[in-house]
Amino acid sequence: MKTVEEIKAMIEAAVPGAVVEIVPNPSPSGQHSLRLAPECALAVAKFLRDDAELRLDFLSNVTGVDWPDSLEAVYHLYSVEKKHGPVVIRMKTVNRTDQVELPSLTPIWRSAEFQEREIFDLYGIIFTGHPDLRRLLMWEGFKDHPMRRDYREPDDYEYEPTAHDDVLKRAQAHQVSATGQPIPGQEGTEDAA
Amino acid sequence: MSEMQSHSAILADKPQGWNRPAAIEPQNEGELLEVSMGPHHPSTHGVFRMDVALDGERVIRLKPVFGYLHRNHEKLAEGQSYLASMPYTDRLDYICPITNNWAYALAVEKLIGQEVPERAEYLRVILGELTRYQNHASSIGFLIQEMGASGTPLMYAFREREKILDLFEELTGARMMVNYMRFGGCRVDASPGWLDRTRKVVAGLSGFADEFDQLLKSNEILMARTQGVGVLRPELAVNAGVTGPMLRASGVNYDIRKVDGYGIYNRFNFRVPLGDHGDVYDRYMIRMLEMRESIEILNQALREIQPGPVMDPKAKIRGLRPKPGEAYGRIEAPKGELGFYLISDGGPNPYRYRVRPPSLINLTVLEDMCLGVNVADVVLIFGSVDIVLGEVDR
Amino acid sequence: MLGEGIIKGMVETAKNFFGSYFSAERLTTVEYPEQRIAPYEAARVFPFLVFDSKNHAGGTDWESGLRCVACQICEKECPPKCIFIEKSKDKKPDALGRLQFYPARFDIDISVCMSCQICVEVCPFEAIKMDTEFELSTEDRFGGLLLDRKQLAKSNQYYHQIHPAEATGVDAKLAAEKIKAHAKVKITDEAKTAAIAGAGA
Fold first, then answer.
1. Does A76 touch chain B if contact means CB atoms closer than 8 Å?
2. Partner residue facing A193 (CB), from C63, C83, C84
3. In the prediction, which pLDDT does C33 show?
């Protein structure tokens, strides 16, 4: 199994114009990743799948990550034939608001089909070239992207008997009901003893 | 360690790219019957919907729709500590809580570089293989029920499952939502009495597997309905990320217990059954054979387990703050490859917590397997994928 | 012969059906609620607060004997955040004689509690344990499933009844802690008297 530096060298040799950078992973797991520029990602992916030595024919996991300045898609690749892995590749979008396109790797690995749809649904990354990009877990017609860190969920905090922290703040708005009577279980120290 | 050989020539084929099967021409253009199978459906293993377009009885198009059980597990985990996510992992694949716990504990242990004592590893293997046995038995039971057997094999499978759940309750306190694994071992130790009772239960498991086999294996109706139905080619299976018994039924020799060798699986002598055709009958047979291999592993583990600690004394359970970094840990869950991807930013909560659900990825090829078959076969093919909605939707 | 497989299967079914009249192995159901299976010792349903009837505070009722000192660790670690604790303003002596806070309000919403038993695991004072009572359905969907301090407090004898081995272990541990605390007090007292004697000499 090759190290990340060797794989980077192989990619740069085989795919001209590929922009690859190593993202080190400080944890004991030692799973360093390769960040690809979106323009060359499809060609690099095809090389990774078809190269005789690497043969990374199995895409195990596609994850979306919400960073403060951009969104990211992380791909974990394994090889069923050679039984090695994981090789981690990542792609970042330009920003979180309007330039959120990334190339879809579904034409190379079919297993990205549902996972990229889920990332589109929950994060809002638009995968160009995906054959059927629509929402997966949320219903069609849902507006926001729930897994983003700035998502504000709808207000259904009427009954929260054991509220803490944020939930407490959102529940306090409901503490007096429409008739002006306090809702049972939510007034101050009422001890049944 | 002998392994059943399969056609290795299958894997010599070049992998193919994006390949959808050719569209099947309906006899009457524009007159397709569109049926929504689910979400209230006795055969869909949970709240799952398939939008099926039919030409008479043949399936022309099938789109799976799910998300009815989406409970926002991944975002909840970002708001609470690593320990607090452990009970939620029980509820992912709710038929196999032990393996979900184990995958999460493995991922966190990879993230923090935590060692696990040997007795804890043996207990994990014992409980994991018991879980695999009862999952495969129940899965076959559900498949046969969808074929119309009114639940008799299912109830026999559940009878064995009850014995295993009683063992879980005695050890961990709960039958299903066990919350047993911790980062660095297991929560409580097993008493010698529990191990004896487990040995007695395991001694009865192979007799049950024989009975189950005799009940079903040469049943003509089963063979007629499942052989040749829902064939999945190995190249498509690998390319689509299919794992678990479905992948092995198509002839691909990939079992994460052998490939990664996580835990102490390298010490056990067990075979990996492979299928020849990749149809529903093969998936049923693979699950039966894997049940027997689980019994093998259980016997070996119950013989070899030694007294000792079950938790690393230096392991921190409360207030765990891993250093920044990320880790992807995966195990061979009964349904496929269950992986957890964790990104830590040094705080008490994970920055990103991702579950790689085997059931969801296995559903990628559902449409491919179901094109051109009758509606009755769709139910069977779907049952042979063996999904559980808690995992698909999280 | 066509149908042979089906007949073999029917033999299995017949074996199970007729066998259920003779062997308990094949008859696996009980007629609940007339017949009940005793729960395992480790079984857990919802939490309850333990109180000691013989305690330093002098009283024998549940309020003075609660082991809980309102440290709020269980509240912080509870995954679905179903515990709500309000600390008292004053202190009362605990089992070791030290003055501790006590919970003025301790609510558990059992419609939210998922019986994960993390609160039991993290409690440093052996004050909260898991009950085995599960027939708790009520007609009031909101307040009826919110258990307060009084409904949660159950005695140590009850704890011995439902989890005998565990309760004996907990009692032994608390007794050992008490001995250690007394030994420390004795050493401090001896040191003090020695210092006074030394100063006086």
1. yes
2. C63
3. 86
Q: Domain tally for chain C?
A: 1
Nearest neighbour of C117 by CB, restricted to B173, B217, B222: B173
Distance of alpha carbon A118 from alpha carbon A130, whole angstroms: 12
Q: Is residue C55 assigned to a domain?
A: yes
Q: What residue segments make up the domains of chain A, in order of their start?
A: 4-145, 151-181
The whole-number pLDDT of residue C65 equals 79
Judge: domain A4-145, CATH 3.30.460.80: yes
Confidence at B106, pLDDT banded by 50, 70, 90? very high
| CATH code (residue C82) | 3.30.70.3270
The answer to whether residue C112 neighbours chain B at the CB level (below 8 Å) is no
B72 touches chain C (CB under 8 A): no
The predicted-structure confidence for C81-101, as pLDDT tens digits, reads as follows 999 999 888 887 776 667 888
Which among C2, C12, C79 has the least Cβ separation from residue B88? Answer: C79
Name the residue among C2, C42, C116 with its Cβ closest to that of B179: C116
Report the topology of domain B29-71+115-319+374-388. Answer: Cytochrome-c3 Hydrogenase; chain B (1.10.645)
Q: Where are the domains of chain B?
A: 29-71+115-319+374-388
Domain that holds residue C82: 47-178
- Note the pLDDT tens digit of each residue in C117-164: 899 999 988 899 999 888 888 898 888 888 888 888 888 888 998 999
Best residue in C49, C68, C83, C109 for a mutation probing chain A (most A CBs within 10 Å): C109
Q: Does B148 touch chain A (CB under 8 A)?
A: no
Interchain CB distance below 8 Å, B18 and A60? no
Asked if the C-beta of A123 comes within 8 angstroms of chain B's C-beta atoms, the answer is no
